[in-house]
Structures are given as structure tokens and as C-alpha cells.
Amino acid sequence: MDGxxxxxxxxxxxxxxxxxxxxxxxxxxCKQCDEVFAIFKEDIDFYxxxxxxxxxxxxxxxxxxxxxxxxxLYDFFRKPCSAPGHSEQVISIYPPESPIKIYDLDFWFxxxxxxxxxxxxxxxxxFLKQFQELAFETPHPAGIRGTRLTDCNYTIGGLDSKDCxxxxxxxxxxNICYSFMLLHSKHCLDCSDSEELELCYxxxxxxxxxxxxxxxxxxxCIDSDFLFDCHNCSSCFACCNLRNRQYYFFNQPxxxxxxxxxxKDVFLGNCQALKRTKKEFEEKVLKIALRRNLYTxxxxxxxxxxxxxxxxCYFVFSGYGQENQHLRYCEEFQGAKDLMDTxxxxxxxxxxxxxxxxxxxxxxxxxxxxxxxxxxYSMFCDNCHHCFGCFGLKNKEHCILNxxxxxxxxxxxxxxIKTNLAKQNQYGEFFxxxxxxxxxxxxxxxxxxxxxxxxxxxxxxxxxxxxxRWSRETKGSDPNVLFAPDGLPDDIREVxxxxxxxxxxxxxxxxxxxxxxRELDFYRQKGLPLPSKHPYQRLIDRSQKQASRYSLYxxxxxxxxxxxxxxxxxxxxKEYNICCEACYLKEVV
Length: 589
Known about the structure:
Blueprint: H1 10-20, E1 26-29, E2 36-39, H2 41-50, H3 59-67, E3 77-80, E4 89-92, E5 102-103, H4 105-108, H5 127-137, E6 140-141, E7 145-150, E8 155-162, E9 165-171, E10 174-183, E11 186-189, E12 192-204, E13 207-210, E14 213-216, E15 225-228, E16 234-240, E17 246-249, E18 252-253, H6 256-265, H7 271-286, E19 290-292, E20 296-300, E21 303-320, E22 324-334, E23 337-346, E24 349-358, E25 361-364, E26 367-370, E27 373-376, E28 379-382, E29 385-388, E30 397-400, E31 403-404, H8 407-423, H9 445-449, H10 454-459, H11 472-475, E32 481-483, E33 503-505, E34 512-513, H12 517-526, H13 535-544, E35 553-556, E36 563-566, H14 570-575, E37 577-579, H15 581-587
């Protein structure tokens, strides 16, 4: 699809053309948060390509709406399968109290049912209400399944991976536990947003590291612990901003013998010793570490963070892979071209205000669309073309509300629907997650990027998953319940196998959890103490190390006074040693 193709919706296009022909750059007030945001000329150029009115929400609120529709936090539930002849409890991303009907993944992806049977007869002036009914009446897949996975039941997404457990989006990876977005990695636990790791623990935003623990923003490091922004380093401990170094201890060079003697004196398998080391690392290393305002690589005329191979991109985050061109307000993308307001896309073009699209073109206001083109206001569709307001369809064309139409009738009705929506000032927005209450707010990407308390989320109308919490008053007398941290063995060498038969209560959330064998084996192999926090809480803690995921803040470099942007909010700018990329490269590289 491109903006030069002849229109099939002439009445709607005339209406939108009247809006766009006089539209000029201006300031607008967000309908959600009341913040003033800018509409730029480059934004208007996109609106004309997509034939959409200008948004009513600021970029942050638009991002949050999409993120609140994106279940990415590995918190699972048991919920009965509603497939014909089924009644078993299945692993699900939907809480038991959710009104959504679910089918187990094998049945949902099978040919034993057809979402066409849930079709609705269209009433054009009532389309949004009808689509909402369709989305709640049609069964959902129990989870978000990746492809070519083996023994990865407790996972979300993923590709070409095996033996993964409580993990989100493991691609080409093996034996990964309690991790988030790992690529080409194996034998890792509690890692996030990293790739090509092996035998690693507590790693964030790093690449190509082996046998390391507690690293952030590191590349090509081996046999090292507690590093920040180090590259090509081996046998280093508690260091920052190092390049091509070996045998460094708290940023000081050592002889080989001295390094291993000092390293042996710091046994991380003792819980109290690990806490002391973490505190010392934060106070002596992280406080002085030089941080670049944004991370970019091989970019041209682009503004964003954690982006590579980007040209003419604005306000974008976490983009990599093949060349990305002409994107605005996008997150998590690869091989993309001509996208605006998207999250979680791969090898797509001409996508607008959509979350989760893979190998698609011409998709607007939709969620989880694959191998499709010309899709609007739809969800969970695969290999579909020219569909509007559809849910769960596979290999279909010219459908509205899951009902098949002739080509001529399809376009006539789509023109009528879009015109009615536009005249009612309802066309041009992603689904409202507070209306489509599919996923608990605290199980979505929104909770990582835009954290809220239970009270705040429920006040704004979001769904919230309340999980079981144990107290000493109710469980304190049970010998099989251990309250962390004081109820746990302090040293990994004291831990016996029967610990796997006991429930551990998280020291922060008070949620119970159990250890699995592969996890215990990993702690013993690495010489690390047992965790005192629930896996979900550990994921949240790692995300808090990453400053802002999808926001930028005005920033003045203290070294050269250049005005630019950063991922660090104003309070963090005062706390950390941050500078622009040019000044950073002068001092570090």
C-alpha cells in the first residue's frame, strides 16, 4: 500500500481531505493527560499518506494505549479451556476473572473451528460497539505463542527456541529462565533485553557476553561481574567505562595473580556478601560512571534510544536488524519502513497506530496481525487481506466483523463505516484498553514503561491482576513456607535439594514462589545465593535500571552545553554523570 494508490473509499477520503488540506503544524492538548504536544509538518505528511486525522493524544499516551494492549510480562494464570469438548485448566495470560473465553493454543490454531461462525451482521453506524462485542464473544488464544518452540510452555512469544521457562520473547535461544527479550542466548537466568549471552545472570542491555553476572550496557565481556558500559573486557570486577581491558578490580588494574586473589576474597554465593558488593558497586562505580544521553549506532537524521541502522526516524526506541527508514513514534521494530505510532513490528511497511505486526503492509488500529495487508480495526488475524473489524481470522479476504462479502460490497460498506466514524469524530485511534479489558495493566508493557499502582490503574479504568500474598500470620507456622530473606540459607553451599519442596515468600511482594531444579543447579554452578524475590519482582527491578524505555527528556550536556535529549528524567540527570554522545566518545572510546 502507498499513498498514491487510487481510493476505494471516495466519500471517506473527501471528508478526510477537508480536514487535512488546511492542517498546519500546531500545538495540541492531549485528551488523556492535558499535556500540550506538537504536531509537526513531518507528522502531517504521514497523516496524508495514511488518510487519518491528527491524533487526540500526545505521543506518550498513544504509546501507553498500545503498551497496555501488549501482554509481555511473564505472569501466568490457570483458566478453563472453552473449546468444544474441553474443560481442562490451561496455562493462560488471562486471569480467571476475565470474561474472555479461551481455547488452548493447539485448538485455537487448528482447523477444528472457524472464527467466521462468530460473525456479525454489520450496522455501519454502530461499528465500534459491534466490534467490541465480537472481540469478547470470539474465543482468544490462551497465550501469545511464538513459532518453532520446544518445551516452552510457560513463555510468551519467542521463535526457534527450546527449554525456556517463564520467559518472554526468547529467539533462537535455549535453556533460558525468568528472562525478557533474549536473542541467540543459552543457559541464562534473570536477563533482559540482551543477545548472544551464555551462562549469564542478571544481565541488562548487553551483547556477546560469556560467564558474566550483574552487567549492564556491556559488549564482548568474559568471566566478569558487576560491569557498567564495558566493552571487550575479561576478568574484570566492579568496573565502568572500560575498553579492551583485563584484570581490573574496581576500575584499578591488577596483575593476574593479584586479581584472582582479590576476586576469590569476594564470594558472591553468600547473601550478605552479595548485598555488600552491590552497595559498594553502586556507590563507588555507578555514581561516577559516564553515561551517554542516548544510544544510537549507524543512524542518519534520527532521534531515539537503542536504535541501529535507522534513517529519517524520529522519537523511536529499540530498533535493530535490517535498515529501518522513515519511522515516527515507534517502539521495538526491525526491518521497518514508513511506520508511525507502532509497537512490536518486524519487516513491515505502511503501518499506523498498531501493536504487534509481523510481515504486514497497510495496517491501521490493529493488534497482533501477521502476514497480512490492508487491515483496519482488527485483532489476531493471519494471512488476511482487505479485512475490517475482524477477530481471529486466517486466510480470509474482504471480511467485516468476521463476515464474508463480495469485493464490491466490502469496499462500499468500509467507505460507509469509516465515513460514519470520521463524522462522529471516532476514527483514527487505537483501541481503548480500558474498554477492551483483555489483559491486566500490571501484566503488560505499559506497566514497565508507564508504571502505576493498583489504585491508580483501577481509578483510570484498567484491569488489574491481584495475586496471592502470604503473611507470617497465616503461613508462619508452616515448615514448608520460607519467608525471605531471613528464612533462606544465607550461603548457597548450605542449600539442600529439599528446598525445591518448599514455598519461598518474596521479601517485597509477599508472593510465594518455588525453585525448579534447573534454577537451583544454575545458582550452584555460578556460586550465587538463592533469590529472595519472586521472578516477576526481579523482572520489575531489572526494568527500573533502564531509565525510561519509551520517553525522551530535554537535556543540556554539562560538558559542551549542547541542547539535546536523553532517556534520563530531570531528577536522574542531577544524580548521574551524563553527557551527549560526542562528549562521551571523546572520553570513553
